[in-house]
Design goal:
Number of domains: 2
Distance between the termini: 59 Å
Order of helices and strands: HHHHHHHHHHHHHHHH
Largest sheet: none
Helix content: over 70%
Length: 343
Amino acid sequence: MLFATKLPLSSLIEFCRVLRHNLGAGLTLLHVFRQQAERGPRPVRPIADRISQDLEQGESLEVALKREQAAFPHMFVAMATVGEQTGCMPDVFAELEKYFVLQQKLRRQFFSQIAWPLLQFFAAPFVIALMLFVLAIFDSPMTPLGPAYKGVWGAAKFLLHFFGTIAALVAGYYVITHILHRRPTVHALLLRLPVIGPCLSAIALSRFCLALRLTMNTGMPITKALRLSMRATGNDAFAVRAERAMVAVKEGEDLAQALRETRVFPEDFLDILANAEEGGRVPEVMEHQMEHYTEESRRRLSILTHTASGMIWLAVAGTLIFLIFSIFLSIYGPGGVYDRLAR
C-alpha cells in the first residue's frame, strides 16, 4: 500500500507533467490523450489510446480512468476525478506530479537504505541450508536446527518453511483485502501500528488536504467535496467513513465535528480545521496543512526506513546467534558429539 504504483513512476511523472502543461495551455482532454497515445511514454501509449477512444465516445474522464484502474494508482484516479469535477485539472496534475516525484525520491531512499539488510535477510536461509547440506554430505551427527532439519531433505524443508511462511503471509493479505473485501479493516489496523501507522496517516492526510482545498475552492457542495476528498486519500480506512461524515454534515454538524465522528483524523488536525471554519479560511489552511503533512510524511517514512532496516539487522543477528549456540550445544552440550564419544 505505501509504495504501490502500477505504471512505472518515471512514466507516471512524465504523464502528469504533460497533462499539466498541455491542459494549462488550453488543449482539450481528447487532444492530449490522443497525443500521448502517439508520443507519450511507451508504457502509457496503449492506455492513453483506450482512454482517448472512451472520451471520443462521450465518456467522462472518471469513467475512462476507472476502466484503467489496474494501470493507475488509486491516488491518480481519485485526484483526476477531483480535477475533472472542479475544473482544476492543470492544478491537480501539477500537485500529482509533485507527489509522484516525492514518492520516487522516498522510494529510492527507502530501498537504498534497506537493500543491504534485505539482501542479508534473504541470503541467510540459503547460507543455513548450505550448512545443513554440507553437514549431510559429511554425515555429521550435528543437528543445529534439530532432528527435523537434518540431512539434504532437512535443508530443503528449511527453505520451504522459510519462504513458504513469507508466501503465506502475502497470500493471506491478498485474500483478506481482495477476496474477502476487508481492505478497510486491514488499513484501519495498519493505522494503529507503531511507526507504520503515523507514516500512512501523514500520507493520507496530505492527500486529503490537497483534495479538500481544490474542491472547496470551486464552490462544490460540501458533501460531494467530502466524498471525493476521503476517496483521494488512497486509504480505505478513510474512504469507507466518507458516508458517516456526509450524514453528519447534512444533519448540521460542522465539518470538523463531522470528521471527528469518523475517528480516523488526529485531534490536532481537527482543532486546526475547526479554527479555519470559524474564520472562513478552510482552503488556505488546507494548503498549509498539506505542506505540513507532506513534510511529515517524509520524516515518518525516514523513521520507518530506519526501523525496518534495524529490525532486519536484528533478525539476521538473532539468527546467527541462534546458530552459533545451536552448533555449540550440538558439539559440547548434553547428548552432543563429545558426550556421545565419551560414552
